[in-house]
Each structure stands twice: as C-alpha cells, then as structure tokens.
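Incident review: delayed structure delivery

Summary: a single-chain prediction request sat in the queue longer than the usual turnaround. Root cause was a stuck worker, restarted by the on-call engineer. No data loss occurred. The affected request and its eventual output are reproduced below so the record is complete for anyone auditing the incident later.

Affected input:
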Amino acid sequence: MNKNATKKLFKGAGKDSILLKLLLVFLFFASSLSAQIPINGFCKVDVLFEGIKDDADFLPDNIMPADLDRDGSYEFILLRNNKNLMAVVSGNKYRRFNFGQTVNELEFYSSSKNSNIFCWLSRKSRNVGLATISKNGILSKNKIKKFDDVPSRITCLDLNSDGNKEIIVGGYAFEGLTLINAGKKNTYAYSQITDNRVFPLIASADFDYDGFSDIVAYDILANRLVFFYNNQELSFSESRKIELSDYPEDLIASDVNSDGFTDLLISYGDRLRVFVGDTVSSFRNSFDIELPVKSDDLIVSDLNGDGINDLLMASYSEGEVYLIYGKAGSEFYEPLLLYKDRNLADISVYKEKGLPKLALLLRDGKIIVISRVNKFGDFDLTSFGSDALSLGIVAGERNIPEAYFYIDKNRNDLILITLNKRLIPDTLYRYPLQDSYNIVKTVKHKNKIDFYFYNPNTSLIEILRLDLFRPTRRILYTKGRIKDLLLFNDRLEDRQRIYTVTENKSRLLLETYDYRDFRFVRAGADSAGNNPLAAALEYETYPAIFSLINENDSLVLIKKEIKRLAAKEDSVKLGAFYLSDLTKINLECYKDPQSNELITAVILTESTLTKFILLGSETIIDFEIKNIRPVEYTIQFKKKGNRLEMFFVDAATAKLKKIVLKEDYKTVETDTVLDSETVNNYISFPFKNNSDLILYAPGSNNNIIKLRIIR
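Output delivered after worker restart:
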C-alpha cells in the first residue's frame, strides 16, 4: 500500500558524553547518557476494534483510515490481499466485501458529499482502477486499465491544478512511468512520462516552487534519483539526477527538518539518508540517521503538536513501532519504542478533529490507536520501552503526582515521565543504569529527586540524584547482602543517611552511610543479630531493625531500636512452626504517614495456605487465607480510618489482590483489584476522595502501562 501521501518524516539525536570518576567507595558519574524528550501527551493507547472473530479467512494485511460518513470520526478500510477481501470497520461493527481481485496498493483519490473514491492497484491482475465507498459503507469499483507489465506503485496528485487528480504508475517490473488522466464520463487518457527504464519508487513535491507538483523517481538500473519537472500541461521535462551509493528501499519527499523546504528521505533499511532541500532544491547536503531495527515503513507527521515533524518507523518482522521526535534543525531525539506486538501488520497516521492519531493493525484484525491524552483518568499508556520493572510515583505538594517512573529491563534504563498541571504525561527523561533493579526508593527535596536502586540479597546500591533533572550518580557497596534499606533526611544537620540491614556470614549488620550535599562523609557498621530468617527496617523515633529467628522451632520477632548511645531490644514469640513446611517467609514494615503508627507484618506461606501476623503498637492480629501466595516485594499497605488495606500480587494467579481489615482489624475481606488482568508489577498511590491510583504493568503486554483509579 502506497502511503507516501499520508506518511511523512523524522529526526534522531545524539547523546551527551559520559564522565566517570572513581571516588573512594563511590563510583561517581558527573554527566550521563540522559535524554529529555517532549512527548506532550502522545502516549494514550486504545483498542478501537477487537478484530473479526467469526471469520477465520479475514486476517487483514493493510489499514487505511477514512471519514467515510463525514461525521468527523474515522472509519477504517482493511484489506486481505491474498483473499481478495476488503472490510469497512465503523465502531465495533464491520462490513466485509469480496473485492474480486488482489489489491496491493490503495490511495485516496477524491471525495464527494456521499462517497469517497480510492485508487487501487493489483499486481496479480496488472490492473489499476477506482473504488467508490459510499457513506453507508457500500462498495462499487471499476477498472481503469490493464497493463502488459506488472505495476507495483501508484501516486495520485493534481498535476495541472484543475482540481482533479492524475495517477502516476510505476513498479519493479514496469517499463517507465505512465500518466493516467481522467476525462469526462469515465474516460481516461494515457501517456508515458518516460520509458526504457524501471522506477519502483516514486515521490512528488513542488521542487521548483512554481505551484505545480513535480516528480522524483528511483531508476533502479542506474541506481539514481531522476527528477521530472512539471510543464504545467500534463507534460514533464527530465532534469537532473542524484547518484546513490546503495540501493534504497523507500523514497519520501517531505520537509524532514521542518525548515520550510522539501527534503528527500531515502530508506536503506537500517538507516536513513536525508537530502536537505533549500530554495532551489539543490540537495547538495545530506545526513544519515541510524535506526534501531530494519525499517519496513516510514511516516512523517507532527505527533506531539510542537510544530516540528516527527518520524514513525515500523518493523513488521520485529513487530515494533518506533517514534523519533524531531528537534529544531537537522537534529532528532533518540528512537522511542512506541508499541511492540509480533502480530503487527500495518500502521497509518490520520487526523481526527484536528489531532494526529496513529492506527496500528494487528494480524488478527485488531485495531489499536495511539493518540494524545486530553484528560486524566483511567487509560492505557505506552511505556516507551519494554518489560517495565519497579514502577513508582514521585509526589509533590499536597501529595499530588508530579511524575511516574520505571526501569526498562531490556536497556537497564530509568525512564521518568513528568506530568503537567493537568496530570498529563509531558516530558520523558531517560537515564542509563548499571543494572536492572527490583527495588527503588525515592526522596524528593526542593528541586532534587534522589533514587536508590538495589536488588535484595546483593551488596550494590546505585544512587541517582536529579537536580533539575540533571543527573549525578554514585555506586555504593555494602559489607553484607542487603535485606532492607531505609532513608533519612536530617534537615537540621543538612545530612542524608542511608540505613541498610545486611547479612554477612549469618551475621545481621546495620550499616550506615552519611553524605552531605551528595558528598560522602562517613560510614559505619554495627552487629544486629545472628542467623536471621528475614529482616526489615523502619523508623519511629529512632531506626529499628526487625528480624525473624528460629528459636527451638519457634519463630521469634526481634525489634532492635538503635539510639544514639545504646540499643534497645524487644522480642515477641510468634508461635511454633515447622520451617520445612514454609515455602516463603516475608517480613514487611509499614508506617502510616498520618498517624505514624507502625505495623509489622510477618507473612508465612505454605503450599496452599498463607498465614498473616500483623503487629501494631498494642495489638497482634493473625489470620489465614487459602490459595493465596503474595509475591515478595509487591506488598503495599494503606491505612484508611479504622481500615487497613494490603495490596500484593498473588503468585498463584498473577493478579493484584487486596486484603482489607475492617472494624479495628477484626474483619478480614479479600478482593481482586483488577478482575481480568494479570500484573507484572504495580504501584498503589493514595489519590483524591479516598481513592487509590493504581499504575501497573500488565502481564499480557510488556510495552503497556495501565492507570486505574480505584474507589
């Protein structure tokens, strides 16, 4: 399908340099391969059509959006090439037609009050014709011409400015370029623009800026571009040529660098070459753009509404769509993975009510549309990466979300997306990390955000400070394997302290690391016990270490409060358990930010039964639930009045569950938060009107993040 009439072009960007300095026990990064990309809300993902479920023969190859009934909302024309089938999708309904022959190219030709006319090409039958689709979705078609050669490319444009389009035909097995001119009463005139050569790629633009469209075509035998200038009377003069070094796969004429002049874009599969236009279309200067994967399709369009053209690139073999935002001038941001699905069949861009939208067609007929977010609420978002780990939210004043983040597991990058005042995704920041991490903790102060990354049972902590989003980085190595980490910001002494409880050769350690203004000051380590089964940290008046030990086949919870000069230790015997029966022992601490009440949760999992023991300042509650197994490090608590809510991902079903303890924790209820969804990871955040904002990565798609407000 020839989409050059609707598909236009893009840009790519270099990366800042990296400076590494080794400083004592820290590895310090003064600058970073960070990126700042204005997405301006273009990230909303909607499934508009679930596919044609009752017709196994109709697995479409191509999609074309069109406002067939003139109501401002677009319908979609789907083609199944090798079955000679076409369908028109409107809302959740569709009408299927047998086109009578294979259609390989479909391009908009003209419209009237009651219908739209499209030009079609069939390589198999060697025909070019017109198809009319009424506003009621009724198809009629006629054949214009059957060629002796095999056409494979059509371009429709008004060459003589009379309001009617002409058709230019070329192809890989087609001699020259043929011009088809429509006359009265369905009559057509045919002429040769040129012959004796083969032109598989055709593009058009007003290269001499005289108000009439000219043609540039790729001569495959000579491996060069040939310009044909319009003489304004449906005749052309062959002009200059541009010799090429490699064999191109696509050719587009568009204002790639948004400077007001038409450029030429050549695709070589894994890279692009842009011939830069000027006042006389000299194309003397050029530059290359490297692509992350081989390109099968290109579109140029301003998707984020900043007045600068962006590039969409699809690789159907990889099932990936990349978005490359344009900067001012001949510069581009790095490619962002916009969507990933092995069933990807086709893409197309259209404007609906003035807003750009991207239609994605999957091989099962499903239609997905990516557009700009216009209102905060329940919606699906592209993650701009894949395999999102460690989702989190950065809150500002009055606990209003200012940004969300996650770790792109495939690239080991932190992706941070800021929200504007309307809570719409605004700007994407990308920061490379040393590893992928399961645990991320944040501290926000003034214009700075500190991120602490680590994996449990390892000894590495990566620290990233964003000062007005400028990164500074350090690596900290602990003496033991990390069980938990606690952050404390001492404003009086202008000091930050990291508390870590670690295990080294069955010894429990409390390690502390102090720094001021992100400069290391001192470190210390104190013994905190032996042979722990689990350990956690929390801060009341002083930091406290909680640990579980086995004492004569009984589980004992030990709380050790670290004061300035001494340590105070308390213990609670939880009861006798056969440790060999336990498949998992979790220890979690929760401090309610409003009441400062501390709750310690011991979670003991057997094969089909999980026992919960919750210890408050004055109470101990225990209960059992069958067929639930909380995934470690997914447990989150929330206190709401006399209710305590505990969220977690259930290992048995991969679904997000919620346990609610009501009436001062005397009544226990269990509920599935997201009924039909499996969840890889999530963050639960207190939101307006006593609701919860759930941001989660579903198990069904590793390129989507979903936002839901649970009341």
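Verification: The first strand starts at residue 20 and ends at 23.
Action items: add queue-age alerting; document worker restart procedure.
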